[in-house]
Write a structure and sequence with these properties.
With about 190 residues, the chain is mainly alpha-helical. It has 2 domains: about 35 residues, no CATH class; about 150 residues, no CATH class. Helix content is about 65%, strand content about 5%. The chain contains 5 helices and 2 strands. The protein has a two-stranded antiparallel ribbon with strand order 1-2. Helix 2 packs antiparallel against helix 5 and helix 3 packs antiparallel against helix 4. The longest helix has about 50 residues. The protein is elongated. The two termini are about 40 Å apart.
């Protein structure tokens, strides 16, 4: 749309460029009645400002996703510790009170829908984290009071303990990746 038309003349010295048939201002002014505000000429300074704004906006969005992941992982670490203790006590035959807290999966789900910074964060690890935390939440629901406990309760408890150990490993790995991603984003990521 923003083309400048030039007249060319072939001479003895080769092809040389003459002045444009009409200059940019005339061209954009001629578009104004038809296209209105959509036909503005952006100077280099304006384009640079738009590029910086878009870059800042992407950085802010990435930082928000990373902060959400970090907060969720920290919350889930407390859940892992609580449930590991309770499951081990139950396996040892103790009567335990089943807590009502469950893993949060909102930030992890958001990341899975729109993975960012794929060079730093492994989407496969985050997907595995999401899957294991949801499996554990389902197991916790079945073990809660008033809900039917499966006949193979000890096997289920051991499986859940294994899932919790894997979640701990994944949490450590993902938190390290988040730190690397924040360093890559620079100082804007910590705002």
């Amino acid at each position: 749309m923003g083309y400048t038309i030039c007249a060319l003349r072939a001479g003895l010295d080769g092809i040389e460029t003459r002045a444009p048939i009409f200059d940019r201002v005339y061209y954009f002014n001629s578009l104004l009645p038809t296209y209105g505000g959509n036909s503005r000429l952006l100077q280099a300074k304006d384009l640079l400002t738009l590029d910086r704004w878009a870059s800042l906006n992407r950085t802010e969005n990435a930082a928000a996703v990373l902060n959400g992941l970090r907060i969720e992982l920290k919350y889930d670490q407390h859940i892992v510790l609580t449930w590991t203790s309770i499951l081990q006590n139950s396996l040892n035959g103790a009567d335990v009170a089943w807590p009502i807290r469950r893993f949060k999966t909102d930030a992890v789900s958001t990341y899975i829908m729109q993975p960012i910074l794929r060079n730093y964060l492994d989407a496969g690890e985050i997907l595995e984290y999401w899957e294991l935390s949801n499996i554990c939440n389902k197991i916790f629901d079945v073990l809660s009071p008033g809900v039917f406990a499966p006949k193979n309760k000890n096997e289920v408890l051991n499986d859940c303990l294994n899932h919790l150990k894997r979640l701990t490993t994944l949490t450590t790995s993902i938190q390290g990746s988040i730190r690397q991603a924040e360093q890559a984003l620079g100082p804007l990521a910590t705002i």
